[in-house]
Design a protein that fits this description.
The protein is mainly α. It is built from 22 helices and no strands. The protein folds into two domains: about 170 residues, Alpha Horseshoe (Serine Threonine Protein Phosphatase 5, Tetratricopeptide repeat); about 200 residues, Tetratricopeptide repeat domain (Serine Threonine Protein Phosphatase 5, Tetratricopeptide repeat), CATH 1.25.40.10. The longest helix has 20 residues.
């Protein structure tokens, strides 16, 4: 039995025109032998339609009426008697889809020919193994675009049956799973997509990172915000991305003022502050009794052109600093005599804001020894101070010691340290800590 060409249409078509995210190159397939196509086995009824359609497509006298020809092919489907009928009709539908696409047809018009053609080809068992994942991926993308999550997931599972490392199928599966609130499967699929690209030495597109990250944001899942936020920053570090990721942390974590202030410090370190966040930072630092920190942030933003001058704010901060600084010695004495560590933590934050790092570090340690404070917060702020002093290893040790509510903050600090170690971002300004 002679084996004939399958016309190579699957490879030529731009499948998945309505796909949600961009696709990546395919990888090796599993071995499986399809049956051969035998044109001699085409039934007479189907052959008549095939000959008529092929003659019209090959005619040089007039442009073929693709809509009418597609209708002919669709009408031949009930006449199918065997798999060779299925295959040839499917291939002609794919050829028709290509014609419609080249003529500027809509995605819906293209898919009206493409999807039935793909399915007929797969049902015929005449499609080569190397093409089956391509066929199923196009079917899945069309289903995803139509919000048919169940159909999409089934199609992507078939892609992965032939090509387990197909990153496109994994990330598209994640979209479909998230749409039906199967978050665990969605995150697993996204992770598998990322791992497939990493293993192939390919960069993960930023649009792929947003798939799990957006779901984490929408569900206020802080642990996933950390997991996929740090992964995004690892692949695409930039001040703007740091801004966006940390703002998601603020929202998802529903942070109160103190936690918010800690995040804003990291934003400043990563150069991720925008004008609105600068104003928020100044307000919170002043509110928490740290006028010097507020002044430093205000003046740096003003000098960098991020904000406009606000004389009232500048005057209020300048007026508050002398009295605040004069009271540090009394606060330190109280911190040392107090049974609990809260005063020591607050005083350490204040000393850090004035650049008295030696006393600040000592008082952070006293706060930990005395207790009565959140140890994670103390380690976080001590780590931020050590970072500002350029003591990266010591800062890392403090961030790694953070547990509890501040652990997500520490995870992002550790990502920032990794980024600095890799030389992928500019050295940040020193970051004072804040009163509890």
């Amino acid at each position: 039995m002679k084996r004939v060409s399958t016309m190579g249409l699957a490879a030529a078509l731009v499948f998945g025109g309505a796909s949600v995210v961009a696709t990546a190159p395919a990888v090796a397939m599993q071995a499986e032998e399809p049956e051969e196509f035998d044109p001699g086995e085409i039934s007479d009824e189907v052959r008549a339609v095939v000959v008529a359609v092929q003659t019209a497509l090959e005619s040089e006298e007039a442009m073929p009426d693709t809509a009418a020809l597609l209708t002919q092919l669709q009408g031949a489907v009930p006449m199918i008697q065997n798999n060779d009928d299925r295959f040839i009709l499917g291939q002609l539908m794919l050829q028709m889809a290509a014609r419609i696409q080249n003529a500027g047809g809509t995605a819906e018009q293209v898919q009206a020919a493409q999807i039935p053609g793909l399915r007929l080809g797969l049902e015929s068992n005449r499609v080569g193994v190397e093409q089956r994942p391509v066929y199923w991926l196009a079917i899945g993308n069309a289903a995803n675009s139509a919000d048919d999550s169940a159909g999409a997931i089934e199609a992507y599972q078939n892609v992965l049956r032939y090509d387990p490392d197909n990153a496109d199928a994994h990330i598209q599966s994640a979209l479909a799973h998230f749409r039906v609130d199967n978050d665990a499967a969605g995150y697993a699929s996204a992770s598998a997509a990322f791992e497939s690209l990493r293993a192939a030495g390919q960069e993960i597109p930023s649009s792929w990172h947003t798939v799990p990250f957006r779901n984490a944001y929408e569900t206020n899942d802080v642990a996933r915000v950390v997991e996929f936020g740090t992964a995004f920053l690892q692949s695409h570090p930039s001040p703007q991305n740091w801004n966006e990721v940390l703002r998601v942390l603020q929202t998802a974590g529903r942070l109160e003022e103190q936690a918010n202030l800690d995040v804003l410090r990291l934003m400043r370190a990563t150069n991720g502050l925008d004008a609105n966040l600068v104003n928020e930072y100044v307000r919170l630092a002043a509110l928490r009794g740290l006028p010097r920190e507020a002044q430093d942030v205000y003046q740096a933003a003003l000098a960098g052109g991020a904000i406009q001058a606000d004389q009232e704010t500048a005057s209020e901060l300048a007026a508050a600093i002398p009295g605040d600084q004069a009271g540090l010695a009394e606060s330190e004495a109280q911190a040392r005599s107090s049974a609990a560590g809260r005063v020591a933590l607050n005083t350490a934050d204040a000393y850090a804001s004035y650049g008295d790092n030696t006393k600040a570090l000592e008082l952070y340690d006293i706060a930990l020894e005395k207790g009565g404070v959140d140890a994670g917060t103390v380690h976080l702020r001590k780590g931020a101070l050590l970072y500002s002093m350029g003591q990266m290893d010591a800062a890392r040790a403090e961030f790694e010691a953070v547990t509890g509510d501040r652990a997500p903050h520490a995870a992002f600090w550790l990502q920032w340290l990794d980024e600095q170690a890799g030389g992928s971002a500019a050295t940040a300004a020193a970051e004072p800590a804040s009163a509890e």
